[in-house]
Every structure is written in structure tokens, then in C-alpha cells.
Amino acid sequence: MELASQQMVTGGWILIAVYVITILYFVIRGAGKTKDIKDYALGNVLFSPAAVGLSLAASITSAATFIINPGFVALYGFSGVISMAFALPLAALVSLVLLTKGFRRHGKTTKALSMAEWMKTMYKSEGYGIFFGFLSLLLITFIVLICVGLTKVLSSTLNIPEFYTLLGIVIFIFGYMMFGGANSMVYTNTVQALLMVIVAFILLGSGYDHFREGVHGFIDKLNAIDPKLTQTTNDDSFLFRDYFEIIFAQIVVGIAIICQPHILTKSLLLKRDEDVNRYLLVGCAAQFLFFLVVIAGLFARIRFPDLMIAGEPLPMDNIVSAYVVSEFPVIVALIVVMGLISAGISTLESLIQSLSTSITNDILRPLAGNKIFKKDLFGLPPQLIWNRIVIAAMAVITVYLSWGQIVEPKLSVGIFAQNGVYAYFSAAFTPILLGMFFKNVPKLSAILASVSAVIVHFTMYYAMLPVPFSKATGENPGVAAAVAILTGVAIGFAVYRMKNGRIELRGKELSKQTG
To answer: Rounded to an integer, what distance in angstroms lies between the CA atom of residue 262 and that of residue 65?
Structure first.
């Protein structure tokens, strides 16, 4: 189904050519300064805290925020807005501020390149670091979500088949990420974030005409389509059935969602401690604006009340791209398309960089010993060469999994991604919390918390276990993650208390003698 006019297709190719040239300029500039795996992971440039803050916001925001999540809101209305624009974001931003400084303090001291290495050094356990290295493979599901989102937008804009669009996206982005790393990523993320700010205002402003008769007039339009769209809960969805799913589970997930390697490790790019507050201020302000973009899903639902276009059903993951192509004048639509692409690529870059670093540094290096890292290859450090091989392997896996989600998703690729990513940060949350704020933490408490969280998450999800006092079940990955996180916290602190007999806070001591 071709949605874009010939004028839009031509303009789209021109803008993409300009975008590609701009990105490659920054990649080549950064690649010249990347001499080893440490430079690739953390960079060796003194970045502005505002630039790193924008890079942070761009990294947290992904194709999910701009492309996929508004589709959930288009389907399920206000319940999705409460969940995705307020409950999770506010918890996530508060958590980001609280966790960043503690993570940075230990990461800077130990020169950790990844989340797995942070865990290894914090708990002095090589095996635990390897465990988190393997656990980070779950983040490939997030990479798949972004590639699917980008494919949907570009395929609609350029009127080309989705498979070839997907192939081009993966080859280009994974290809240049073999060379640039952190030195180029901060620059490209900053450009992308600035474009995303513009697009956020365009999308949020696109519904102004629906408010000509005030807020009540807007609500009446949604009610005429489906009264459930304006209810604060929606039992048609397995995501927003009651307040436990919409608010409580999302707050728990929001607090823990920050425990992803491409988010917390961003603070390690700052060379000076005095830059952290400005970095957080810029990052949080931009990020909150980006989270609000899901509201545009309501405008898209008014545009497509029966979720049909040209007589064909409109899949949830296609709603935003169809809305942009059909709603805006060509020039404005192309600007929005570039912003949507930026939202996806910015996070994709961060994920490729952090995941490839973790696979190379936390799986290959400890398991292979120094056998494959002994001498330079082609004049480059062996870790850098192996990192590029890892990225190439990730690209092949991404194409395979992404095409499967395009052809046969379960409602949305967002569910596939949530299942993997939520399991990862469910396992990471308690060890990070204990390591940052408590003294003398036994590694057993961290290990049992992580393992139990992973088991509970996947058991809840695949068995679709119910929550006793709620309509919620583990079919909702957010519910499965919330239960897993709370289980991990309970087990981690129980073992900590059992081993130590008291709780000791970093900076000050809170003694609670047993008995």
C-alpha cells in the first residue's frame, strides 16, 4: 500500500541523503580519535554536559517513544497516556537523578566500560560479570523494536518494500557503528535530539484543531469513536486493565528502567563531576518532552477512527507513520519523518555501542582468556577488531528477528521488546541499588536477587500468571517485570540482612540489630 506522494518520495530521498552525509561526517571525525575499546565505549573527548544530556535524552527515547507507543495510545486512549506519558516517565526521571551519581562514582573509580564490568568490580566476581554479559543479549529485542519502527516509517515515506528498507537500515547503521563509537555518538545524538525537540512540538501541536471547542469538545470526539478511549482504565487491553497495571507496575518499572547499560553508563562520558547536575537538567527536561509525544496517538485515532486506511486494516505499529504521511504538508511531514528516524537511530547507536562492548569485553575476553586478544590485527587493537566482528553478527541476527516481528507480531513489536528488556533491568535493579547505597553487600544477595528476578519475570510472562488483587496478569511484560523487581528486592535485602545482621548505608549508618 503506497501512502506517500511522489513529491514526498523525492523529498524523502534528498533529506535522507543529507542526513547520511551529516552522520558519516561525525562518524569519520570520531573514528579518527578511536584507538582502542576504551575510546569506543567511553570516548576520549571533553564533551559539553549539555551535549551529553541531549545524548542521554536521545538514547532513552527510541522508536518506541515516538513511533510504537503512540500506537498503543491510539488503540486504548487515556489509559495509555496516564501509563506511558506520566506514571513511567516521572518514576524514571526521579530514578535517573538518584542513581546516576552513585553509578558514576563507582564506574569512574574502576574504569568500568559496561554494566557487566560494573557488576563484576562492584561484587568482585568474574562469574557474575559474565552472567550479566550474557544477560545483556536480551537487549537485542530492543534493537529489533527500533529497526522495525524505522522500517515502518521509511517504507511509508519512500514507498519501498519493508524487507529492503530493513536491510538498508541495518547495513548502514551497524556499518558506521563499527568505527565511530562514543566519540561520534555524542555528536550525532546531539543533532538527533535537537531535531527530536522540534518534531515533538510539531506532533503535540498537530492536534490543536481538535480543541477548537475546548477540552470537552476533544473528549466528545474520542467518545464518538469509542467511549473506552476516554476512560482511565481499558479492559480491552492486556496492558491497561486497572490501576495496578497503569500506575503501580509502571512506577516500579520506571524506577528500574534506568538500569540499562546505554543509559547509566552515559554519565561516564563526563570527565568532570561538576558537570553532572547540568547534564541531568538538560537530559531530564528534553526527555520529559519526548515522553509526552505519545499523546499524538489520540490525534492519530481521530484521523483514523476505524483504524482503516484505503480500505485496509491499519496495524498498530503503522499508525504513526500513516498519520504523519497523510496529515502533514510534504515539507512538515519530511521534517517529522527525520525526527522519527532520529528518535530510533539515536537509541540504536547507543544500544549497538553498549551491547557490542559488553559482548566483547564481558563474554569473549573472559571466556577466551587472552588467546584472541594477544596481538594487533591489521594495525588495530584486537579488542577493537573483535568488537567489529560482534557488530556484524548482531546485524545478521537483527535482520532475522526484525523480519519475523514485521511479518507476525503479537499485537506490536513493543511487546517483544518489553519482554526482553524488562527481564534485563529487573535483574540489574537490586544489585545496582545495593551496590550504590549500602555497605558490605555480600555478592550472594546480588546474585540471588538477579537470578530470582529473571526466573520470576519469564515465569510470570509465559505462564500468564495472575496478580491476586488485580485484573493484571504476566501477559503484560510490565506486570511480569514489576513482580520480578519486587521479588528481587525482597530476596536481595533478606540475604543481605541475614549475612550482615544489620543494614549499613553509604555515608551514614543505619543499624538494625537482628532481633
So the answer is: 16
Cell numbers found for residue 292: 509526552
3-state secondary structure of 466: strand
Whether 104 is in a domain gets the answer: yes
Q: 231 lies in which domain range?
A: 6-403
Q: Number of structural domains, the chain?
A: 1
**CA-CA-CA-CA torsion sign (63, 152, 136, 83):** positive
Cell digits of residue 485 = 523487581
In a domain, 365, yes or no: yes
CATH of the domain at 222: 1.20.1730.10
Residue written as grid cell 488503540: 75
Residue 312 domain flag: yes
399 close to 49: Cβ distance less than 8 angstroms: no
Structural domain contains residue 434: no
Residue 124 vs residues 118, 129, 205, 366, 441: alpha-carbon distances, Å? 10, 9, 51, 14, 11
Q: How many CB atoms lie within 10 A of CB 513?
A: 6
Closest CA to 459 of 433, 487, 428, 431: 487
pLDDT, tens digit, 9 for 90 and up, residues 237-282: 999 999 999 999 999 999 998 887 667 777 877 878 888 899 999 9
pLDDT tens per residue, range 435-494? 888 888 999 999 999 999 999 999 999 999 999 889 999 999 999 999 999 999 999 999
Residue 173, φ and ψ in degrees, nearest 5: -70, -45
